[in-house]
Amino acid sequence: TILTIGIGPTRVLVITNDHVTRLVGGRDVLVLCHKGQLHATDMRCCHSGGPLQEGDMEEFDGRICIVCPWHKYKITLAEGEGLYQAVNPSATPPKQTWRSKGVKQRVHKVTEVNKNVYLTINDSEPPVISIQLQYKSTVHNCVK
Ligand code: FES
Questions:
Q1: pTM score > 0.70 for this model?
Q2: In what residue span(s) does the Rieske domain sit (predicted)?
């Protein structure tokens, strides 16, 4: 099933360069605008459920990432890949390069139609880590 919902007027996100969060199909989703580009991802960080809506946007190796405020994991907004810096100690001088841990965070499709933003939830399998954290957190919240 494809689930698409309206988020609101594009200008609200683009002018404020800001974000909104929505609970969609039982999942917290973050929709944000960075330099005029719209992105969407699960709101909980794939590492340990940190609040990505409070993260900073930064570019690493030419890729736009959201940096989790809890432990500074870097997640690409286009694919949901975790990035890390690797060092080749045998190079002289030791050389640092950016590498990918693979797709860890679920990202969603954002489209603009008639100056309104629409979010289409990515339900592809297998589930990535950020989904498991959502369910864990929901259970946790119910127990409290
Ligand atoms: S919870 Fe996001 S980096 Fe640890």
A1: yes
A2: 11-104
Q: Domain limits at 43?
A: 4-143
Q: How far is the CA of 68 from the centre of ligand 1 (A)?
A: 6
- Nearest atom of ligand 1 to the alpha carbon of 69: 2
Condensed to tens digits (0 to 9), the pLDDT of residues 109-144 reads 999 999 999 999 988 765 567 666 666 655 443 332
Specify the CATH number for the domain of residue 88: 2.102.10.10
Q: How far is the CA of 127 from the centre of ligand 1 (A)?
A: 18
Sheet holding 74-76, edge to edge: 56-60, 63-67, 74-76, 81-88, 95-103
- Strand pairing partners for 127? none
Q: Which residues line ligand 1 (CB under 6 A)?
A: 45, 47-50, 68, 70-71, 73
Which residues does residue 37 pair with via DSSP β-bridges, in sequence order?
A: 34
Number of independent structural domains in the chain: 1
